[in-house]
Amino acid sequence: MEVSGPEDDPLLAQLHRVQCPVCQQAMPAAHINARPAAAAAAGGASPRSWGEAEAPEEEEAAGDADGEDDAGRWDADAGAAAFGAPGGRPRAPAAEEVRQLLEGKPLADTMRPDALQDFVGQGRAVGPETLLRSLLEASEVPSLILWGPPGCGKTTLAHIIANNSKKHSIRFVTLSATSAKTTDVRDVIKQAQNEKRFFKRKTILFIDEIHRFNKSQQDTFLPHVECGTITLIGATTENPSFQVNAALLSRCRVIVLEKLPVEAVVTILMRAVNSLGIQVLDSSRPADPLSHGSNSSSESSVLIEDKAVDTLAHLSDGDARAGLNGLQLAVLARLSARKTFGKKGGQSYPPSRVLVTESDVKEGLQRSHILYDRAGEEHYNCISALHKSMRGSDSSAALYWLGRMLEGGEDPLYVARRLVRFASEDVGLADPSALTQAVATYQGCHFIGMPECEVLLAQCVVYLARAPKSVEVYSAYNNVKACLRGHQGPLPPVPLHLRNAPTRLMKDLGYGQGYKYNPAYSEPVEQEYLPQELRGVDFFKQRRC
Ligand SMILES: Nc1ncnc2c1ncn2[C@@H]1O[C@H](COP(=O)(O)OP(=O)(O)OP(=O)(O)O)[C@@H](O)[C@H]1O
Prior knowledge:
By secondary structure, this protein is α/β, with parallel strands linked by helices. The chain is built from 24 helices and 10 strands.
């Protein structure tokens, strides 16, 4: 099989402008050191991120070279050799071959790195200078809780530790808290005890989504972590301070992984693109439409615009899995639509070539990219940001947080209820009609639902952000609560003069005696309304009583 020459194909002509410095040939995908704009602008991706397939020692370290661990993984160098063209010139694989590589298994799983040096970003957690990295390199894995948003590399880090532990004869057992029962945990612990007693073998137990175990399930492994029978690695997207037993938490090192920055996702995507033998098209250098010809060869190749990779990285919102899935979907979708592939962007291409454009990747990811976990931490983070933006009278930021929640699928009535609360807590008597506005917004949302009610919420959010603020009532009421909760002994009785006296007996007991009915006086009335022991306390001025 041969690759059509640049003279036949405008896309190939464009690619051939990039020459391999070693062989002086047009660089195949695996050699292209393409650098999409986001990463270039950020300047953050390490040089090894680009054209990584050229570093065989790293591939070997990652366990890729023999392909043993990664059935289905496309090794760019091996692929180039397998698809070698006459004269030893490597070529990009045909479209059909790319389709076969992509079908059947999530690209994110295929691309999961096996070695720490392939783990992108997360420098604060596992960078070269970190304690965790030294411990991992020395195979001294402590019990860990890996906390971070979806797709940032928690499972991947555990997978790398597993790979490493195999080399040191440490057992690595995985359980998912979504499906495992307490009996499964007990079995693992029993086995770990035996391994430790009879073979002096350590066991690492990885529990994905550990927050899904309830507190008593988490208690099951507490003593075994304590005595070293198992080293626990838990992964969670939820704040472990709320979701993991305090006792267990104190025995684990919490590693906070962050949302991956755009340039890190670009690096991960480029690794996949290179690995699949997909060629990157520099969209700032359009092919000469006049130089196109037909590509009669059956070995069509797949190309992707560099800005499509950039856009994918932006839309995936720090979630590498979302980015890789998006890439997989976009390429597969273009491959299925190959027959209709013809004129695109005013240029025509041979039908055997497939070009994945920016709009292809946008289609699949546009809405789903908004990371928002209605039940989890993100829900509270966003509502807190909305509340604080309104309090700070930043109506623009407040609208942004409102949009983040609604576009992410938040219940509009939940937001409306928070606005009712805000109207009283933060606007209060500075503008009492804010409460009316907020209640009306709640009712309006109730009547018309989403998406129509979004504008009601937006209006109310802006109203509240721009309203004058007063926490006078809120603070005074908090003082009252503090006074009541801090009171020692029985609460003081209600003064007799303030009591109602509906019966004769009550009147005889002194109920209502000495009470001054204010409307009956033309001058200000001197009267005590607090219990005797609180006499003179002003809750608007002081907290203690
Ligand atoms: N830091 C990273 N370096 C390289 N690849 C990564 C990294 N993070 C994620 N990936 C890629 O994204 C995929 C998904 O990541 P992973 O399963 O580790 O996410 P996670 O944090 O465990 O997410 P979740 O909480 O949703 O399970 C991996 O299979 C891998 O291909």
